[in-house]
Amino acid sequence: MSDNTASADAVRAMFASAISDMYQAEAPQYRAMKKLVADVNRETLSNDPQLERRLAESGELERLNVERHGAIRVGTAEELSTLRRLFAIMGMTPVSYYDLSVAGIPVHSTAFRPIGENALRACPFRIFTSLLRPDLISDAEAREIAAKILAQRDIFTPRCRELIDLFERRGFDDEEAREFVVETAKTFQWNGQATVSSAVYRKLYATHPLLADIVCFKGPHINHLTLHALDIDAAHNAMAARGLSPKAIVEGPPRRRCPILLRQTSFKARPEPVAFIEEDGRRATGAHAARFGEIEQRGAALTAKGRALYDRLLAEAQAAAPLATDGANAQAFNEELGRRFAAFPDDYETLRREKLAFFRYSADPSARAGAPAFPPSLDDLMQIGALRAEPILYEDFLPVSAAGIFRSNLGEQGAEEFSVGADRRAFEAALGAPVLDELALYEEAETRSLTASLKALGLDSVAAL
Fold first, then answer.
1. Residue 375 phi/psi, 5° resolution?
2. Domains of the chain by residue range
3. Does 1.10.1140.10 match the CATH number of domain 8-299+396-434?
4. How far is CA 395 from the centre of its chain?
5. Are 143 and 137 in contact (CB under 8 A)?
6. How many Å apart are CA 464 and CA 29, to the nearest integer?
7. Largest CA distance in the chain
8. Whose CA is closest to 111, among 120, 415, 37?
9. Are 130 and 109 in contact (CB under 8 A)?
């Protein structure tokens, strides 16, 4: 590659900005939500100077109002594998496999995201990408119609494909990087002109609303962008007050003093005008609802032990107070969720000691006075202040929460029972590469920080507890 190759971080930041501008122009209600979240964040910071100081020290404050992720859905293996090459240019790697069939959604997914600490700090934007699973579509006729339509479309412009090939040969200069962002954004823009007749649309929609959304348009339009809220409950409540229609609950764990994993909410998709080209050449008008705005609040990444506890408590809450499709019993569900999660420790030191969450360590060599007998344990070093630990932020997704968001924007038809479960092997074959293990990434980050901190303290290891 040439010496003047534009950095992946810079290209990703340009892309995130372009997608944000595009989606705000396409979806006025998203602009309203962006202002709402900014207002909530400003009020939260004014009431919590310590939080503001901590965010400023970590570099989070300056990117507080920047979108954290978007989501798309594609129909074929070729589309997915080309997206892998496209996102690689932006330093975005497929992380984790998500089986959404467990919640009645006929797709499986991954998240293309930056994986290094510096890359995440530079621009945390990622794209949650779902691939249609035709094997989960029970209607054979609908399956055949979808396959024929998808085989005829190309979601990438010819120039976009040329630029991907060019980058893989020698990289980009700055002008080529800017052109690449412009061409790439065209893949994800909304186009109200359907590629099918209204009859075909109705057939696919009746089979599954998500099937129609994936198949009937020119490309994988962004179906939502996500903003980061410092107080997601306040933002959720404010949506209704400002004329946005929020989903019934905030997905994920309940409100806690020490946030864990990921909490999400959204306003419901609103119908948008669509033009159909009928079989006889006439034009017909209709509507399609699939695009919305989302808010997220992230907490500590959990270990395998922590995730097992989280999954068990969530399953218990869902079994004891199943959430109605229309969210009518949201209050009862939330109360049950809170009761169940009382069993999940809500202070960082316990989370660290019990190895329920991952932490990033840093050293303070000046705190060696009164050091314990050699070799010290990890807890010894924490107690004298020679080591500090901050929770590692969860950068990934929760399949049940993602499916809950999808369902709330697909209507009652958007959930089915599928007998076939996860198929990671097929997904990775379509992708053309394995997905990375999110737990391994967090464990590596924790181990790397601890090793560096011990070295700074002149230690090779700590005593086992």
1. -85, 140
2. 8-299+396-434, 302-348, 358-391+435-465
3. no
4. 8
5. yes
6. 54
7. 87
8. 120
9. yes
Residues ≥6 apart with Cβ < 8 Å to 26: 189, 190, 291
Q: Which residues of the chain have pLDDT under 50?
A: 1-2, 369, 412-415, 465
pTM: 0.90
Structure tokens at 33: 């939500």
pLDDT (tens digit, 9 = 90+) per residue, 158-215?
999 999 999 999 999 999 999 999 999 999 999 889 999 999 999 999 999 999 999 9
| Alpha helices (runs of H) in 354-395, residue ranges in sequence order | 378-383
User: What tokens were used for 124?
Assistant: 């945390």
Residues 6+ apart with CB under 8 A from 312: none
pLDDT tens readout for residues 275-315: 998 888 888 999 998 888 889 999 999 999 999 999 999 99
Residue with tokens 């992380």: 95
CB 129 within 8 A of CB 71: yes
What DSSP string describes 423-452?
Answer: -HHHHHHHHTSPPBPHHHHHHHHHHHHHHH
Q: Kindly write down the DSSP assignment for every residue of 60-125, as one continuous string.
A: -GGGTTS--EEEEEE-SHHHHHHHHHHHHTTT-EEEEEEEGGGGT-SEEEEEEE--SHHHHHH---
CA dist., res. 416 & res. 105, Å (int): 7
CB-CB contact of 402 with 120 (8 Å): no
Give how far Cα 369 sits from Cα of 49, 206, 305, 366, 389, Å.
Answer: 31, 71, 35, 7, 19
CA 387 – CA 373 distance, rounded (Å): 16
User: Which residue carries 């330093």 as its tokens?
Assistant: 91
